[in-house]
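W.,

You were right to be curious about this one. When I first looked at the sequence I had no strong expectations either way, so I just let the prediction run and decided to look at it fresh. Below is the sequence, 276 residues in total, followed by the output.
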Amino acid sequence: MENIQIRRLYFEKEEELEQLVELQNIVYKDKGKVFTKEGFRRWYLNNPYGELISFNAFDGEMLVAHYACVRNKMLIDGQIVDGVLDIATVTHPKYRGKGLFKTLASVTYEYARNNGIGFVVGVANANSFPGYMKYFPFQFVAQLNVKVGYGYSLKKEDGKIFSGYWNIDALQWRCRSTYKKTQSTIVGNYGKYSRILLGSFSTDLLKSMNLPQNKISLKPVLYVGLGAKPKGVFMNVPRFIKRSPFNLIFMDLTGGKLPKMTKDNVFFQLFDFDVA
């Protein structure tokens, strides 16, 4: 670790984006994922809620590990609270086992805490979940529900004091041209042969979005989230065919001023952590 340097990057420079894309494509080359500068530019540079927080490890001029959180907001017990969403952690295969994830995440959380950010929220897969829980005071909230069926809207359940906060600027940032709406729900494509329920929003907010109406079809529909009921006929996706579990984790950076998030008091949807 003596030659490793830690730097904060904003990824506004083309060469920095190119290094990031190269690292991501090395790490995920066997998983069929292809990353582009345009994708990171959208996530990292266009967020209306604030600038990216990303600390990175370099060996000389070579980017060897990357950690990033993007700004977001949650409505918590009636108050809008500034937070960050854990979105990316990657380490070059040759530099694993050196504690780089722990180092980068620690610096990130300390920076966030010192700059008035109230929480960190994330969805960890089976590989990353143990590290978050071992090294940091994250709270494991629950595994997100994964259901498949037929229906085109969501209904938020009562009694939820945690939910993502979205205004028109943030919603426009996250929406793609392929998204459509059904009642109060934004619907997206999931592969060629299915749709996905991305999130439920207020009718007034969706009225301001220029989204086409979703037409009813026979395509199956996927739902991922907590605290909402998809309208229609849905069933849980069997464990043996679904992807790595979606583990919702939460860390209070206020020193205990926030209430505890539980699986029963949170409304959390795909729009709050991913873009399908």
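Here's what jumped out at me. The two ends are 37 Å apart (CA to CA). And, maybe more interesting for your project: The chain has a mean pLDDT of 92.

Coffee later to discuss?

I.
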